[in-house]
Amino acid sequence: MHLKFLAHGTGSARKAAKYLLGAMDAAGKERGGVEVLRGDPHQVAAVADALPFEHRYTSGVIAWAPEDQPTDQQIEAVVDAFEKTAWAGLDFDRYAWTAVLHRERGGGAHVHVLAARCDLETGRSLNIAPPGWEKTFGPLRDAF
Predict the structure, then answer these.
(1) What is the chain's Cα-based Rg?
(2) Which of 18, 53, 98, 138 could form a disulfide with 41 if both were Cys (CB 3.0 to 4.6 A apart)?
């Protein structure tokens, strides 16, 4: 399993959500399947695009090699653990995020994460992937 945060977050979250839900990948190839696992991508995008910060959203990807063939239960367990790690100590109504599963034709799978960079209760910026994020998320990756 591979976990990576992407260097996006200052552009349109609406465009990011549209990409996550699209039938085609970045190379123009048709995806094997798209399934929203958590949240509402359009709602997350609306929240993120309304923020007054320069960096309004965080995006990332959790990927498996085709030979890994993760089951739905394994994917759910990873997404649950990701959420608990990313927003440790916060109630679910204090953050806006979505997780979208992309199935690949060759059998691989990856989950895109899109999160508004804001604590919804306080209105303050919240970065789940600050510099050094590998120390926090590395053990999660290694556990699976």
Answers:
(1) 15
(2) 98
| Cα–Cα nearest to 46, from 37, 59, 56, 36 | 56
pLDDT of residue 124: 97
Give every strand in the sheet of 2-5, ordered side by side. Answer: 2-5, 57-64, 109-116, 97-103, 33-38
Fold of 2-143: BirA Bifunctional Protein; domain 2 (3.30.930)
pLDDT at 106 over 80: no
Phi, psi of 52 (to 5 degrees): -85, 5
* 91-112: average pLDDT: 93
What integer best gives the mean pLDDT of the chain? 93
Domain spans of the chain, in order of start = 2-143
Angle value at C-alpha 81, between 78 and 45, nearest 5 degrees? 85
Q: Find the helix or strand (DSSP H, E) in which 25 lies.
A: none
**Segment 29-83, tens digit of pLDDT:** 888 899 999 999 999 999 999 999 999 999 999 999 888 889 999 999 999 999 9
Q: Please check whether residue 57 is in contact with residue 16, taking contact to mean a CB–CB distance below 8 angstroms.
A: yes
Strands, E assignment, the chain = 2-5, 33-38, 57-64, 97-103, 109-116
